[in-house]
Design brief:
By secondary structure, the protein is of the alpha/beta class. It contains 24 helices and 18 strands. The strands form 4 sheets. A 7-stranded mixed β-sheet has the order 12-11-13-14-10-15-18, with helices on both faces. The chain has a 6-stranded antiparallel β-sheet with strand order 6-5-4-9-8-7, with helices on one face. Strands 1-2-3 form a 3-stranded mixed β-sheet.
Amino acid sequence: MLSYQKLGEILIRQNLITQEQLEKAITVQKQEGGRIGEILIKLGIIKEQDMVVALGKQLSLPYATRSSGLLIPQQDQGLEDLIPLEFAQRNLVLPLSRNMNSLTCAVFDPLDLILIDNIKKITGCEINLVIASRSDIISGIEEFYSKASMLKDAVRQSYESKSILEERTETTEESELSLDRLIARAEEAPVVKLVDLIIRQAIDEHASDIHIEPQKEKLYLRYRIDGNLYEIPPPAKHLHLPIISRIKILAKMDIAEKRLPQDGAFIVKLEDRVVDLRISTVPTIYGEKIVLRILDKSTVPLDLSRLGFDAKQLEDFRKSVHSPYGLVFLTGPTGSGKTTTLYAALNEIKDPRKNIITIEEPVEYRLEGINQVAVKSEIGLTFASALRSFLRQDPDIMMVGEVRDLETAQICVRAALTGHLVLSTLHTNDAPSAVTRIFDIGIEPYLLMPSLLIVAAQRLVRKLCQKCKEATEPKAEELAGIKLSTEQPIFKPKGCDDCNQIGYSGRIAICEVMVINEAVRKLIGQRASYQEIKTAARANGMVTLFESGLKKVELGITSLEEVMSITMGEE
């Protein structure tokens, strides 16, 4: 095993860089992150080849190049299965040959002891290192891992995921061991395969989150599907640490830190699409709990007409987001789909002739043609500081992930007053209460009155499975005085194989859209109460969240029970 040495000290000892140059690179690393060697190369302080040669000499490792013919992997040794393509690309590792229990690999950073230890764990081999340049390793990986092997791996993973799901539906007793049986069958890289399976199965079931939770006697695995958590047959308790470590390595997190919460992210490629995963860990009394948030843009309809607005609401909302300037607010609790609606609005109004900038925490989906910035509070990049910079970037449209404080709110309002369209979110229960919330933050009525265009509140309700829903006649006590405007029967969930016996499949928004007309604007200027603003909005035709939900009940989209649970029957 390599002894721990710092790259900067090695390069200074070999007179390739100075102490001042190293300190400069360390300063950049603190500001932007990244590895010190890559920063030195990026700053032009040292050439990549010189650094690799120096490391080879210092660590007594062979230096190999493509031109020398030493970076050509041996065929028919199963090296592509021993180190999967995704792992090789992400970590710049090229397997070269295997002799009994000894594996020779080319790496770019031989000082990454965690990587080397991880290679050892997933392959079960002792590792011999060869050092090579980044460009040579990338070229070698692209040549060695053929498209045929990639397709074979994807098909195999798909088959394994399917078999696990089938086993799970057969018998409860046997299904609890299904993941462990997969581990027993997978002789190579079991933890890597297990984590891949957990993620793939969650994506296939359209889960939004994966929860891996250690308890005293067992490990819990749960998927959040359509807003609800469902238990999944878990792996064995003793695999908790390897699973957590594997995910942390993928997310570029500190695997040695188990006492403090951490956040990270990585990308998964599945056949023809790319899925972003956001990772969060917290220490519990039984070990670290980890949550993976799945951000699969292919399953999210970034189309305003498909989100759940009715015809009039959609017309009003579209009119506002196509305005040249003004303030548009989306409001609702966490997980109500506000950000998705904002993305759908940006997707509709983006235009090469417009400069659109966003500040988000974090950036959930990447949109082509839009400049997206992620909040980094630890280095001073907050919503407010980013917005101040945005105003010097000649923007036409700005999207702010959330208005939390007075400074952010002031900049948003003033930007809207000076010819910019600003879209943002608030955490309030309904549309009229957004106005009083902005007052509470500290914005004066005379600033809000001319700038606010529209406020849309929303919730997400589960959609009935269209293949198994069944008609029902609700009892008087269930209606509790609610009058439905249709003589047609309403529907309730039943459950079938297509919806995993849940009765629901997918979610849709119910919306409350408050257009700021002259009557409402006048009340804002008078700092009117919540009830006065709501009464004026209702007089202007605003449909409440509950009424929006009832319309979807009457159309057979969702159930009365679901709407009541989300809105609590509030008019």
